[in-house]
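Protocol step 4 of 5: obtain the predicted structure for the target chain.
Materials: sequence only (see below). No template structures provided, no constraints applied. The aim of this step is simply to have a reference model before the mutagenesis design in step 5. Sequence pasted as it appears in the construct record:
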Amino acid sequence: MTVTDFLLPVFVQAGLTFVVLIMMAVTRTRSLSSGEVRSDAIALGEPAWPKKVTQYANAFRNQFELPVLFYALVAFILITKTGDVLLLTLAWVFVITRIIHAYIHVTYNNVSHRGGIFGLGAAALIAMWIVFAIKILTGT
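Step 4 output (C-alpha cells):
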C-alpha cells in the first residue's frame, strides 16, 4: 500500500468538511441577507438560526468528532507503515459513511437513518483501530 492510497480517503474526508463549511456559510449568509434572521439574534449563539442553517452547522460540527480519530489513525498507519488492504477498505467504508451521514443530516435528517449510518462508520473506525493495535502489538 502506498502513502497515496491512504491519503486519498483523508483528502475526500477533508473535502467533505470543506463542502459542508461552504454550504453552512452560504445558508447563513442567505438567512442574514434575506432578513430571515438578524445578526444580533445570533451574535452569542445558534438558537435563532433557521432549521436548514442549523442542520449545516451541526453537520459541520460532526466533522470534528469521529473524523479526528480517523485522521490520527491514518497518520499512525503511515508513520508505522502498517497499511494493508483491510485497513484501506475500512478507511473507505468510514469516509463513505461520513458522506452519507452528512447528506442525510443536511437533507431529510431522519435520525434513525443518520444514526444507523453513523453506527456503521463508527464500527469501521473501531475495527481500524483494533486491527492497527493488533498489528503494532504483535509486530505483524
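Step 4 remarks: The two ends are 15 Å apart (CA to CA). Helices lie at 3-34, 39-42, 51-62, 66-80, 85-106, 111-138.
Proceed to step 5.
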